[in-house]
Q: What sequence folds into this?
């Protein structure tokens, strides 16, 4: 199934949203609850799956939904279709401060691997499934990176990341990253979770017990502020909570 050809514009700075322009009959799929606003001619319907399972019947849809549930994602996706006259607009906002990155799947060979929760929306025809890391040992105990999302297709997809996004091009190199700071990578990249160092470094270095290791040739996307770190900084239990007076979240909860 060829993806619909959609136009878009990303707006905002620290908290961005993507405005998608649909011709009559075109559809964009999105995570449930991500819609910001839409024109009158846009209709929407929540469905079990991304629509690419239509030919596989009910069992195909249920299997796809079950896989998304395993990954901790909503089993439903919302389909927004332009059923009006002329071009219509629908916008999707990021769930927390950060950056929205457009990904042209056709230019990446038709596939990209993402950390779960990174997917925001995509042109109809994009297939969304999950991929398990091949190395289960350290990955399982590392927590993050055990289950990944895989997008396949030939259209545009939009990915959300926390803070600033850095795109790195590896040429037979090795890159080690905080597991939460990895957004996605091309399938040509070999990805694993490995111990961060010796016992002293692992428990007292402050960098975590495991690091994501990426090797090979291809593109890698990183985020400077994953949601996990943001929550830790805002939590009343954070080591920084006593600095000054108390945490931002603590002040808000007492109001």
A:
């Amino acid at each position: 199934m060829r993806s619909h050809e959609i136009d878009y514009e990303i707006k905002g700075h620290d908290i961005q949203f993507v405005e998608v322009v649909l011709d009559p009959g075109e559809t964009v799929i999105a995570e449930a609850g991500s819609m910001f606003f839409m024109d009158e001619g846009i209709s929407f319907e929540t469905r079990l799956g991304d629509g690419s399972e239509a030919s596989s019947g009910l069992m195909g849809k249920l299997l796809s939904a079950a896989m998304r549930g395993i990954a901790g994602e909503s089993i439903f996706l919302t389909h927004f279709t332009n059923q009006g006259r002329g071009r219509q607009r629908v916008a999707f906002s990021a769930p927390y401060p950060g950056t929205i990155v457009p990904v042209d799947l056709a230019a990446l060979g038709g596939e990209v691997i993402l950390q779960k929760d990174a997917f925001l929306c995509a042109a109809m025809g994009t297939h969304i499934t999950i991929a398990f890391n091949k190395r289960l040992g350290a990955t399982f105990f590392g927590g993050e990176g055990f289950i990944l999302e895989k997008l396949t297709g030939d259209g545009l997809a939009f990915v959300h990341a926390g803070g600033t996004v850095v795109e790195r091009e590896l040429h037979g190199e090795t890159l080690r990253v905080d597991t939460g700071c990895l957004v996605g990578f091309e399938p040509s990249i070999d990805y694993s979770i490995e111990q961060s160092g010796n016992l002293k470094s692992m428990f007292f270095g402050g960098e975590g017990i495991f690091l994501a290791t990426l090797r090979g040739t291809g593109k890698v996307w990183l985020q400077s502020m994953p949601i996990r770190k943001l929550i830790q900084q805002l939590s009343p239990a954070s080591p920084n909570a006593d600095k000054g007076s108390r945490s931002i979240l603590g002040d808000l909860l007492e109001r």
Remarks:
- Helices lie at 57-70, 136-142, 199-204, 227-234, 248-254.
- The first strand starts at residue 7 and ends at 11.
